[in-house]
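User: Hi! I'm a student and our assignment asks us to look at how structure tokens line up with a sequence. Could you show me two examples?

Assistant: Happy to help. In each example below, the sequence comes first and the structure tokens follow. Example one:
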Amino acid sequence: AGDLLFRIDPDPIKIALSQADATIAAAEVKVGTMETELDTTGVDISSAREDVAFFTEEYKRQSSLMQSGFTTKARLQAAEHALSTARSKLAGAEADAKMARAALATGAAAPGVNPGVLAGQVQRDKALLDLSKTEVRAAASGTVSQADRLQLGQMMVQGLPALSIVANERS
């Protein structure tokens, strides 16, 4: 029992392992990029809020001056337009932040782990499992029969026996 019967070519599995590592690395870079985008939206929101506050005060000032007759209707309309634009910028920045947070969201299957990273980790685990199965060993002591059916480079069919082992009789 435990004797090596045959080896399955590990190269395709090693390639799958490398692909999984690349998938993980790409997903981690993407997460970093998304975190940076989220941080940037925070700056955009702060800037837009400052603009809204400034243009709100400017509009109030122009409105007060208009009532007193010390400004023109054009200046009041310009202040109103600037305030509207600032509010739109703030809404856009808040929407961008919401989208960035959603892109960074994790699923219930693995809280705290990005789905792209998780997919790469699962691919890696499968490749490692497959790699551990490239050496086929005898489950019992005995004599191998039908080994002549095996040919170098032969493609194996999953689930079908490749050879038979006739167990030794115990005395």
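Example two works the same way, sequence first and then tokens:
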Amino acid sequence: TGTCATEDSVFITVVPGLGLTVDADTTVTCKGGSVQLSSTAAVTGANYVWSPTTGLSDPTSPNTTATPSTTTTYTLVGAVGGCSDSGSVTVLVLPTPTMGYLSSADRGCAPHEMSFTQAAADAVAYTWNFGDGSPVSNEHQPTHVYATPGTYNVTLTGVAEGGCEASINTI
């Protein structure tokens, strides 16, 4: 009857998707702080690349430490068996105050009165520690009397909006 039948078969392999999820131990940090970036995947053996890579301890690890200087969105791309997946997490970086202060004459006879003026940028609250065991002050421009001769370490701590702190101290 003159008809020919042919048959062929193809083996198809379907690998599972990565099922990649990305997270951070915190999504808010102070400037100079660090966060732990982590990921989970449904399969093992994937290759990973984070971007941007600036400030990362290991940009090819599924779990790495990030020290961003500004608010940054980190994206992780994972690939295995020709399949890829990605996930992102944004880390908000809050400003840390830049601390500074001025003081009156730093030498004198006891009892010696000193005036201080904070010169901090981005701080909304202040704590002065005069280094002599006296109570701290939260004043903007405190005056303090050193009753006993000695050398004292004065510390000014400032807090920015969002709660980030910085300190400066001098003797």
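Here is something you could point out in your write-up. The chain has no helices and 13 strands.
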